[in-house]
Amino acid sequence: MEENEKKINNGIDMRWYVGIVLYNPDVQRLKQNVEALYALIGWKRIILVDNASANKAEVKALWGNHKDFVWIENTENMGIATALNQIMRQVELMGGGWCLTMDQDSVVGEGLVEEYRKFMVDRIGILTCRVKDRNFGWMYSSRCKEAEEIEFCITSGSFLSVEAWKSAGGFNEDLFIDGVDYDFCFRMRAAGYSVVRVHGAFLLHEVGYAKKVCLLGHEALVLNHSPLRLYYIARNYLYIGFTYRVFWHWAFEVFKRFLLVVLYEEGRLEKMKYMYKGICHACMGRLGKY
């Protein structure tokens, strides 16, 4: 039984788990998340990593003693990258081959992993899906009907191979948050693995309090992130540009974000100050938690 369960897709280990990183979650939204996960077939455990949430006791009251859940509790906010590595190490420890990584406020579509399984071949590192944002609709457009290889994907809704995670050296904990997924995809693809978006699978997601606007004749997203998140975006995007020798692309992304803050967001002076700090720290090579 266990062996049949393990090897069902061309010799690919299909024992899989779910991992969710928690930081002050909206409990009702998290319950929707978990209820949708229960509709999926085949996962072994749901691993919850709590980054010192203020409402941790409320969440633990729901699932703290449930056999389907594994809890990892951090005494301070360790960031998304550290929490994701904790999840993947736990999956490896429990003998899993794959992990569905989820944001705390995302909700999976019906049959997500069943759709992923149709496209599992050797050297696939991540399978991802179409993403619908609650605020502005579909995040990606494509003429592809089934699946396509892409360069990057967000963490939420991603089906990540343990072997690919190990080959890439794990998530970069020095980045803390923002750009962690892009950096990981760079290293994973360099290790010979691919990222594939499956168009028959979807995820309901939310990027900050985003809205679409027109910037310089093109559609752009106003994210309305906090000043601290904008610090990490500016710093980590430039780090990616420096590290992988694609500086001008990522410098433009920072410039575009700066321009959107100036034109469309409230509290722009504080946000501009934090972005400036992020730019300075990237040039100085300073990483880690702010």
Task: Reconstruct the topology from this structure.
Layout: H1 2-6, E1 7-9, E2 12-13, E3 16-22, H2 27-38, E4 43-51, H3 56-63, E5 69-74, H4 80-93, E6 98-102, E7 107-108, H5 112-117, E8 124-133, E9 137-138, E10 147-150, E11 158-161, H6 162-167, H7 180-190, E12 194-205, E13 211-215, E14 218-222, H8 227-243, H9 247-264, H10 268-284
Parallel strand pairs: 3-4, 3-6, 4-5, 8-12
Antiparallel strand pairs: 1-2, 6-11, 7-12, 8-9, 8-11, 10-12, 13-14
Helix pairs in contact: 8-9, 8-10
Task: Explain this structure.
Belongs to the glycosyltransferase 2 family. InterPro entries: Glyco_trans_2-like, Nucleotide-diphossugar_trans. GO terms for molecular function: glycosyltransferase activity. It contains ten helices and 14 strands. It has two domains: 2-205, Alpha-Beta Complex (Spore Coat Polysaccharide Biosynthesis Protein SpsA, Chain A); 211-284, no CATH class. With 290 residues, the chain is of the alpha/beta class. Helix 8 (227-243) packs antiparallel against helix 9 (247-264) and helix 8 runs parallel beside helix 10. It has helices at residues 2-6, 27-38, 56-63, 80-93, 112-117, 162-167, 180-190, 227-243, 247-264, 268-284, and strands at residues 7-9, 12-13, 16-22, 43-51, 69-74, 98-102, 107-108, 124-133, 137-138, 147-150, 158-161, 194-205, 211-215, 218-222.
